[in-house]
Amino acid sequence: MTMNKSRRALLMAAFVLVAASTTSAAQQASDPRVADIVRAGKLRVGLHLPQFVQDPKTGEIRGHGTGTVIVPIAQALADRVGVKLELVGHQAPPALIKCLQAGECDVGFLGYRPARAKSVDYATPHIMVPFTYLVPPKSSIRVPADADKPGIRIAVVRNHASTHALEHILKHATMVDVAIPDEAFELLRSGKADAYASPRPPILEYAKQLPGSRVLDDRYGANIQGIALKKGQAERRAYVSAFVEWAKSSGVIQKSIDAAGGRGIVVAPSDILTGSVPGRH
């Protein structure tokens, strides 16, 4: 008798799980915000260099750099909609924006810029790459404000987002701009700069090459990453934003960062402003 009851309980549990799964799938299929994607059977996600690398023989696209964090998030979004993931690679952000505008990409992973927000809409930010300083051994610079003093030379990469953010807040220090990160690091290592301003991930790596150097904990700005959509899709934007909040609270985004070894990349706070903004950590 006990065995029969246990068997019935197991069967009932299995029935409930199947029913819940079926109901969830039906809800996704009937959700008008993603109904066209469900009908197509695939979610077309746009990426841009250097977020990906492409196999020259097979054409397969794989995440690279921040893309190693982004691709698992894209897969989670496709899973939530209930379709397969199709990655669409582009040479640069403008090409990705055109793909969204033409309706050839459903969503795209794109760093927020005010100018870009005139062409596409953004869902809630999902990850953030802080801008901060690498300072040499025995430096008296402990927080970003310490670097903004007369006579302080800050190495920066020309036209980089981290440099643009710094231009808006520096009042006293002098920026020394160079073409590539290696040159900026060399200025610091050779004593021709007192600090190197950069996104946190690369300077964490450079710090290994200069014993005693430090990457500051605080930030002077950040590159906010969001999922971009074609203008005028308010309902879909709400759907994607709800997904992002779920992915944050459930740990999906943090797990993607950890699995990718994304040192210096953090989950974007829900209340953070989009763009390169000052703040802590």
Summed up, what is this model?
By secondary structure, the chain is an alpha/beta fold.
Walk me through this protein's architecture:
The chain is of the alpha/beta class and 281 residues long. Helices cover 38% and strands 23% of the residues. It has helices at residues 2-30, 35-40, 67-81, 93-101, 161-167, 181-189, 200-207, 234-249, 252-260; strands spanning 42-48, 52-54, 61-63, 84-90, 107-111, 120-122, 127-135, 153-157, 174-178, 195-199, 214-215, 221-230, 266-267. The strands form two sheets. Strands 1, 4, 5, 6, 7, 8, 9, 10, 11, 12 and 13 form an eleven-stranded mixed sheet that branches. Strands 2-3 form a two-stranded antiparallel sheet. The model is unreliable at 5-27 and 274-281 (pLDDT under 50).
What labels describe this entry?
D-Maltodextrin-Binding Protein, domain 2; single chain; 38% helix; 9 helices; 2 domains; 281 residues; two-stranded antiparallel ribbon; disordered C terminus
